[in-house]
Amino acid sequence: MTREDALTLTVTETAALLRISRNTAYSLIAQGQIPSIRLGKRILVPKNGLQQMLAEASHPTGDAGRVAR
Q1: Fewer CB in 10 Å around end: N or C, the chain?
Q2: In which band, very low, low, confident or very high, does the pLDDT at 2 lie, cut at 50, 70 and 90?
Q3: With a threshold of 0.70, does the pTM exceed it?
């Protein structure tokens, strides 16, 4: 299995992809803003969960994302 085929990312890989610090990534995971799973002592970020989070963030629902005219 290659890195591209992996179903999960490490916190460090996630931070690099999002262009944030590793500490910020851990903080956002702790707050539940970045989806994660814990396997033993390891924290992993599912790729599909991260993609869904980004898709939802880029398509706000309701009036919060509307521009007043």
Answers
A1: C
A2: confident
A3: yes
